[in-house]
Amino acid sequence: MAFDRILGQEQPKKILKNALQSSNIAHAYLFHGQESIGKKQIAIELAKSLNCASPIKGDACDGCISCRKIENRTHPDFFFIEPTKNTPTAREAVIKIEAIRELQRKLAFHPYEGNVKVAIIDNADLMNLQAANSFLKTLEEPPLATILILISSNPFKLLPTLISRCQTIQFQPLTQENIKKILKEIMTEEKIENDTLAFRTLRSRGSVKKALAEDIENIVNIRKEIVSLLETISFDRMDVVFSHAKSWANQSDQWELILNELMELVRDLAFFQSGCTESEVYNRDIAERLKLLASRRTVNSWLKIFTAIHTTKIALSGNANAQLFFENMLIDFCEAA
Ligand SMILES: [Zn+2]
Q: Distance from the CA of 35 to the center of ligand 1, in angstroms?
């Protein structure tokens, strides 16, 4: 059955199945939780269940014309709104008022084929203020036979008045086991080795998108470089400071990755030095090496290093002199000893 095909998210599925079985569906939902953990899929399954020609215990059959049309986004009573870019090169995608107005026009009619009209607003927090205010009116006076589903990974960016008019359902990061199953399913074309699968799963933090996006080889190399840097760096080795600062300054496309890896590794080192166990760290696969490294500094020293990385991250998001900031950061590392 449709809901059960989706791995994880037992609680949201239970809430929605109960609502479907007792015909107690809210007129507006907010599905929130980190990116790529199944919010959109469950919203689509809910739309199918609401309009399915032969539902099974309230769940969609997945085979009828209505289910197939919703799956293909060709159902006349199913609307999917997502942020778009003004131009292909624009940095930010937004949901503009025009898209909301068009949706409002369509929602004014009775359902053409189905029982209810279902509108999904994906990344609802990217509605601009005009669009959000306009959408608020729809939430305040919901059109008949309409279910609205807002999806957001950043619900704190939504207008509080929008949130208060929705039934909120929180989605949790996927378990490692479920991430592994999904990766195996998606990556059937490639021959993934067990080591790679384990590494991607470990680094996913419960998000399929993150697990798939990882450029494993690059990450392993950068992490190796950072660990040996942390093992060597001191005021006696200024050559290490200057060579790394120069090399990193020249790789602006890698800054985000380098700084994120640094932060996660230093976090793990501070955790180990505070007496935490392997289950609490990110880089579990190199735990032994990290434990040894962690013991060479105090927790306070690791925390100072963490702050130095964070400050550099903020500085580099402006048009800072990268080499200078990397040098400063690495000197802070030496000083934190
Ligand atoms: Zn069906």
A: 27
